[in-house]
Structure formats: C-alpha cells, structure tokens
Queue: 2 jobs
Job 1
Amino acid sequence: MSVAPSRSRTLPLARVPPPLRGRGVAHDPPNRFERIHVQRDGWTDPEDPAPRTRFLRDRSRTIVARNRSPDVGFDVSVNPYRGCEHGCVYCYARPNHEYLGFSPGLDFESKILVKADAPELLHKALSSPRWQPQVLAMSGVTDPYQPVERRLEITRRCLEVAAEFRNPVSLITKNHMVTRDIDLRERLARHRAVHVTVSVTSLRREIQRVMEPRTSIPRRRLQAIEALARAGIPVGVNVAPIVPGLTDHELPAILESAAAAGATRAAYIVLRLPYAVKEIFELWLQQHFPDRAAKVLNRLASLHDGRLYDGRFGVRQRGEGPFAEQIRTMFEVTCGRLGLNRPGTAELSVAAFRRPPGGGQGDLFDV
C-alpha cells in the first residue's frame, strides 16, 4: 500500500488490478474532493482476499429527499441505504460516495451507510400537517433491495408506513427480493397507490455476472415481474442502462420477455458515466471485454458529440444523433407492438391518503 497525492483519476492499464469475484470494481480511484489518496497494490491478504462489506450507521435526521432534476420522474424519494452492495460497475450514484469521504470505486459497494431510523423518520414526515400527499420514490439513488435488506428489513418497514398512511409508492429494483413484500404492495394496490419497476440490463448471465455481480440473475428478475403481475400489482421494466456496442441489440428481447412476464410499462436509459464512473467503466471494459472496449467507447462518444458523457438534462439519459434516434425508434416500435405504455397503466392516486388517528398502527382490517 502507498499513500500519494491524488493527481490522476486513472490507473495505467499495466497496473489495473485483476477482477475481484463478486465485486464490480477492483480498486478505489481517488476522491475528487480529497488531497490524499490511499492506494492498495491489489488485495493480497490471504485472510481477506476480497474486502468484506462494512455497514455504517447513517444518522440522518430526515428521510424524504427532494429532487430538482427535471428529467427524473419523481419529486420526492426515500433512500434507506447510501452505497450499494449490488456493485453495478456503471452506477451513476457512485460519485455520491465522494461527498461522504469515500471512494466511488470499491468503497461504494463495500462501505454501506444504513439509515436504521428510516421507518420512524418516514412516519414522522407523513404525520406532519406540512406533508402534501404525493408519490414517494423508493429509491431514487441506490437499490432499496440490496442484499443486506434481507436481514435489516428497512425497506419493508418503510413500506409498512406507506401502507398505513396509504401514501402512493413507486419503486425500482434489480433484486427478486422485491417479491418478499407483495403483501404490503397488495394493500397499496387496492388504492392505486403502488407501482414497481424491475430494471433489466441484459438477458445474458455472463454479462450480468460481471457487470452487476450481486444483483438477481436475469431469469429471477423476470420471475419477479411475473409474481408481481400475478398478484395484481402494476409492474414495469426499465431497460437500463443500455450499453452501446455491448447490450443495445438486446432491447427488443428484453421488452418481449418482460411483457410476456406481465409488465405493462417500459422505459430505457442509455449508459451514463458522470465523474469517476468514466474511468471505472473504461478499466472494467479492459478487464472483461478488451476486444469490445474501443467499439463501446466510440459508440458512446457518438451519442455525446465525441465525449463519454454529457450532463445536460434531457440529454444525459438518451444522447443525441443518429444512434440515439435508432435506439429511441427501436424502443417505441417494440413497445407499440407489445402493447406497453398504454395510457393509464401506471397512474397512481393520492385520494386514499389518511393520517391514522393518534399516530397508531392503522385499522385492524385495512381495506
């Protein structure tokens, strides 16, 4: 291990560490806000060949975050976790970890901040007379059903609060664990107060395994869509991110598979590489798909006027130019053929919202 001033955000390819099994990133690039960077020359400890995940308590005093980005489809959100053990290499939320003093690389997926008080904070927020009933997104940043949720059940307890108040919830995830809480979603669905989106990047296990190492495999995500639809819960698919030159040709097949499983809505997002995610993704391509790296990066640059990323609202999620138009047309034609995105299929209602008297646990029979 060496300690040196953080001058460059990239590693020479000759020094790229080998992949870590079960991790999306094998190194920690410098934090853009820090002057000092600790750099490991590989993980060589025989008792810890890959770093274990650490869970740190997040002592935030509020839980409802407000969105100011006009191209994001929600106004308020609840994020039970910061950082994500799923380890998706492309995750646009990785740079958020830099605000916490961590690296957007391995730190992002191995140092998870847990908002243990999230359910109580949410109950307090919804009880306030200042709360105007509106759709809550879970989660707007990292996945609310990452592996530790199976043990901590923070997302489930937040859903219990939403069901108690009958406040509508929109949720997106890559994890089959979403089916665990079908009972709570059925309660919300009676009041048109819930919608679930399952994100599917690729149907190929060999890509998912290295690009999204701790997420549910593609087959299990489709099974989650099927289980939710069978329970009468509105469910859609988000083909995201589309990786030009690697997964873009799978767009029709993913939409077809999701529609067959019961999805009624669909969306897509083209790969976004803000800040350090650009270098992280480039190194990942060299590790896992060196023969396609140039093609992927050139295709991506063609969407952003020669750059790997354009952060302008409305452009950052789609890109511009002929290839962006080709993806959009393919998406719209396929959705039309499959009957996806028909009007009214994802409209949520706040009409049933209520504040339980005395801040109690709701009616014994919640109908």
Note: The chain has eleven helices and twelve strands.
Job 2
Amino acid sequence: MRLLSKIIASACLVSSLAFVPACGGSEDSPPGPLAKHFDEMYIAQIAVDQKTAIVNAQQAWSVARMENAKAEADLADLTNSKLPVARNELKTLRIGVDTAITQKKSAQQSADTNRINQAAKDQDVAEKLEKSGVAHVKYLEAYQTYLKVTARYTAENMYWLEAKFELTKSQLAQNSHIAPQNVKFEWYPGQEQERGKRVERAKGKWESQRASATSARDTWLSQQKAADAANGNHPTSYYDPMAPVPTPAAAAATPAPTP
C-alpha cells in the first residue's frame, strides 16, 4: 500500500511538471495560479529598450486582469441585485393576474356586459404581462449563466497572458545568455501552451452560452412587445443587459426629453 502511494505521488509530480491536468484536477476545474514564474531580478540589468516585448506582455496581462474583475463584478451585481428584482417584479405580475381573475368573476356575477368585456380584457393584459415577466426572468437566468462562463473565460485568459509574460521574460534571459540556477527554460513554453489550450476550450463554451442568452433575450423581447401592445402600447422598462449600447453619434442625434 505504501509502495502504491509512492507511485501515485511520483506520477502526480511528473504530470504537474509537464503541465498536464491530473491528480485532483481536470480540464473543467477552475484555473489556478501558475506553477512557474521567472524572477525579474535575473534580467534587471538588461537595458529597458530591450524589454519592449516584456512591457507589452505585462500590459496585456494587466488588461486581462481588469476584464476578469469586471466579469466577476457584473456577475455579482446580477446575482445579488438585478435578478432578485426581476423575480420580485414577476411576483407582482402574478398578483395582477389573480386580481384580474377575481374582478372578472365579479363582473360575470353582475351581468353587466361592458364590465364583463373590460374585465376579460384586463385579464388578457395581465396574463400577457405575466408571460413576458416569466420570459424576462428566464432571460436573466440565461444571462447569469453566460456571466459565469464569461468570468471563467476571462480568468483562463488572464492566466494565459500571465504565462506569456513569464515566457517572454525567460526568452529574454535565454537570448541574453543568462542562465539562473534551478531554472529550466523549457518550463515556460509548456506552461504557456497548456494555458492557451484552456482558453480555447473556455472560449467555445463562452460563445455557446452567449448564443443561448441571446436566444432567451429574443424570446423575451417578442413576448414583451405583445404584452405592451395589449396594454395600450405602454412600454415596460425592464433591465436588458444585452441591449445594444448607443454610439456617441446616435446619442447626440436623440432629441432631449421635454421637461
């Protein structure tokens, strides 16, 4: 048993050095910190004008970190605020349907034709508004899943660009004939390639989930349009995170609201 444990431990060590997901990890597991970093002190004396590639790689990594932070913040805002609000709005719409049904029953007992017709119309409007509310919640739930995938994708990209940054530093050292002890230059290309493959897998899932969220949005918009038309063309303003952002030119052409 002890011999078997040693064999498994050795296999894990070899796999980690080869940057192959194994021994407690998988391709679907969240990304973790890089295994290998190249200490900048080894290239500190190299002239700055020879470090353009390093500066560019570091800047790309910095932007990727900000993109990941934005994705995480968007997910938290939707989960903790926007989606609960939409679910509460749906509860209100369902109460509206119950109220309309009660009023219709009362109208039928009165035998007043005008009142019965109005009550039937009010119920139809209430039911269409509820239907659009259900579609809106489903849309935001699909968008929430999309944001989760976005956070994962941006995290994978962040670590990949960090791996490229570490690779670029090691390449400069190698090209400058700097060979630190206990550093193997072959570590860094393998690390960068493995992280790059993870990004490609994450990107595919991101694109698929974006399509699903877009489809859910289209369904909601269609049902919302029908509900607004039944409600006397009174548009309902609900949170739409995938709405096109108006360009500055389009915004400038939009007339200012009348006070």
Note: The mean pLDDT is 87.
